[in-house]
Each structure stands twice: as C-alpha cells, then as structure tokens.
Amino acid sequence: MGRIKIGAALATVVALVCAAQGLAAPGGALKHVSTVSAPALGNPEGITVSPDGKHVYGVGFAADEIGIFSRNRNSGKIKLLDDVFGDGLQSPRAVVVSPDGKNVYVAGASSDTVHVYARAANGGLTFLEAERDGFGGVTLLQGPYDVAISPDGKHVYAVSLNEHAVNLFNRLGNGELTFVDDYSGVPFAYSVAVSSDGKNVYVTSSGAVLTFKRNKATGELNQIDSDGLGATLFDVTVSPDGKRVYVADADGVHALKRNAKTGKLGSPKLVETGQAQEVAVAPAGDAVYATVGNGVRTVAVRKNGGLKVIDFDGFGGVISVSAGVAVSPDGRHVVISGGVGLADAHAISLSRQPTLTLKGKAKQAAGKLAVRAACNAKCRVTLSGKGLKKVSRTLAPGKEKRLRLFFKGAPPSGGKLVIKGKAKAGNRKAADKLTVRLK
C-alpha cells in the first residue's frame, strides 16, 4: 500500500525540520496504522467509533451494508469482523452509536428509514426495528441523509434531504424508537448534530446552518437562528467542549463560535482545505479532521479558535475518494472510509501525534512542588527530575490534572529544578519540560 503525501509542501518542510532537530511532529498530526479492504463499505459514507473504543462501524451506500470492525485501543489497528445487511436497509448514509453503547442507528436514504440495532459486547449487531416513512406517524422521512443522538441518549434526530425536514424520535429502554414530531421548512437538510450540553441542535440546510433550541426533557425543537455561509454545505459537528461548531463545505471548513447560553453562532472563520465532505473534532478540541480528495486533512485549532492546516494524508494508491471520518473517544486515532468506484472500498486507521503540556508556578517551595499536566489524548504521563521520585498518572484527553512531586530525600533549599515529562498515547510518544526555581 502506498501512502502518498500530496498537496502538503508546508507540512513536508515542517516534518523535515522536526526530524532534523529530533522534534515530534505537530500535535494531532497523523501516521498510518492500517488499511482494511471492506466490500461492505461499497461507495462508502459515514463511519464512527463506539464509545468504548472497541469497534468501528461504517456504511456502504451502494453495498446496502454496515461494516463492523474491531479496534485495538493501543495501536489503533482495525480488523473487519462482520457485515450486516437486509431487513429493508437501502443506501445507508450515516451511522451513530448510542452514548451507552447499546444501540446503533443507521439512516437509509433509499429505504426512507432509520434502522435500529442492538449492539453486543463483541460489536455484533442485531436488527430490532426500522422507523419508516409512511408508517407510525412518520411522514417526512424520504431520503434521510444523517442521524444524531442526544448526549443523554433520550432522543434521536434524522434529517430528510428530500422532504426538507428534521424528524424527532424518543428512544425507549431497549433502544427502539417512537416517532414524536417533525419540523418542515428545512431546505435540503443534509446533516444534523447535537451540542454536548444537549441544549441545541444544528442542521446544514441549503447554504445555511440552522440553530434549534432543544427541550432536554421532550427533545422538542424551536428554530432560533440561521447563519448563511453562501456555499454548498455538507457535514456539521460540534466540538466536545461545546464552544464551536464546524461545517464542511465545497471550499473547506468553517468554524463558528457558539454562545454557551443561547447556542447562537458567531461569524464564521473559513480555512480552505479543498472540498471537505465530512468533519470530525478531536476530544481535546485541538484538531479538526476533514475528508478531502483521496485522504484526510488535519487542521489545528488555535486557542483563539483560529484554524491552520498542518497536514494532508493522501491514499491515492488505495482510494480515489474519501468519505467518512471519526476520531476515537480516547483521542489516539482517526479512522476514515474511502473507495474507488462503487465496489472497491477501504477503512483506514491513523494514529494522532500526542502532545504533553506542563505548567506550574515559576517559584515553588521544595516541599510543596506541584505541576499541572495535560495531553491531547488519553495518555500515561511520567514526571521526573533530579532527586525527585517518579510519578505516573493516566490523563484523559484535554483534561488538566495537578500532580504533586516529592524528593527522594531532604528537599534542596534553593536552585533551579528541571521537571521532565514523558507521555505515551498508544504507540506514540510526547515530551515536555518545566523549569522552576526552588525556594
């Protein structure tokens, strides 16, 4: 398999400089792990990773199938386990796993359905039922293009491209759905996302992002805003911290700041990546990944919300078009789906470059030494220094943790101390150091 780097002259220069100086690749940069041929993903569309990180699910629009993959949470390597088809599913476009990991929901564009499956511990799927246009009160579900579930797992939303609507379903205890309501007047509804706080739902619709206020108890929606972006819009997603909404379009990726109280969006910032089909955000919010051309574009997110393209990983020898993209919940890996024509499809796994950041007061008492550590992925951090006892902790992605440090013997009365930090996230490593003056 040839992993081809294209359209990334700047990224290549950065990589060469880093290698020459012994530096790590930029945070969030990708490295190929595995490529799996998957006929079930014929004409691939959406892909997702289960909340426990053990499995990957992808759908094939032409194959009318769901591909099930195992995932090694350490290495990121994926392996095709099974494929699921039948039960009336046609032209699946999107797939999502419930927050509790018990169910999988698939939007069938040609079958006009939301298919519901029970998920087993081994990743296997068992068909439960399908919500179908024209049945059970459902009347605006022709051509569903996307499906999303609320963070509390109570409600499922499906958007209909053909009938310009958003459909709301209640989720029962066994994962089955009951129709609640629909919201028409949403032109060419393409993609839907629910904010992490559950307060809002966002839909891409004919050149605009529509903002809905969500009733957490009932799931009911009320449109409160519309932001025109003046382009052909595709995927929409919300950052895990709820601070920003990202939209893929014909030119690249838009970032819109989200008001935490109202859910309304600010002025968009566009980073040109080429036509972006789908977009995913890392759990720590440090990077955005967009499927572009025959690969995936890595976009760094600055502290002020600005975007910067740092890399492109292309797979021209394997796929001609990339489709779905997802980041694992531990922030260690990215998976994409892609293919050549309608039959030759693949799922590709890549590892993310971890980052380690150490912070602390410039002057500290030797007997009360403490450091704040953070990683952009789930990682094992070890701190050491001259005369210090080593301390190791596991950090969640993006969550800063305060670590106390102690000397092996009597603490020194002064001087400088260099605290060295090493982090391991799966098979990739990062490092940082902090110099403090002891008092």
Task: Give a description of the structure.
By secondary structure, the chain is mainly β. 3% of the residues lie in helices and 55% in strands. The chain folds into two domains: 9-352, Methylamine Dehydrogenase, Chain H, CATH 2.130.10.10; 356-438, Immunoglobulin-like (Sandwich), CATH 2.60.40. It contains one helix and 36 strands. The longest helix has 13 residues, at 9-21. The N and C termini lie far apart (57 Å). Mean pLDDT is 92; it is low at 1-23.
Question: How much beta, percentage-wise?
Answer: over 45%
H/I helix tally: 1
CATH superfamily of the largest domain: YVTN repeat-like/Quinoprotein amine dehydrogenase
CATH topology type of the largest domain? Methylamine Dehydrogenase, Chain H
CATH architecture of the largest domain: 7 Propeller
- Identify low-pLDDT runs: 1-23
Please tell me the overall pLDDT. 92
Structural class: mainly beta
What's the gyration radius in Å?
Answer: 23 Å
Shape: globular
Give the helix/strand layout.
Blueprint: H1 9-21, E1 30-37, E2 44-49, E3 55-60, E4 65-71, E5 78-85, E6 92-97, E7 103-108, E8 113-119, E9 125-132, E10 144-149, E11 155-160, E12 165-171, E13 177-183, E14 189-194, E15 200-205, E16 208-214, E17 221-228, E18 233-238, E19 244-249, E20 252-258, E21 265-272, E22 276-281, E23 287-292, E24 295-301, E25 307-314, E26 321-327, E27 333-340, E28 344-352, E29 356-359, E30 363-364, E31 370-375, E32 379-384, E33 391-395, E34 401-404, E35 415-425, E36 428-438
Parallel strand pairs: 30-36
Antiparallel strand pairs: 1-28, 2-3, 3-4, 4-5, 6-7, 7-8, 8-9, 10-11, 11-12, 12-13, 14-15, 15-16, 16-17, 18-19, 19-20, 20-21, 22-23, 23-24, 24-25, 26-27, 27-28, 29-31, 31-34, 32-33, 32-35, 35-36
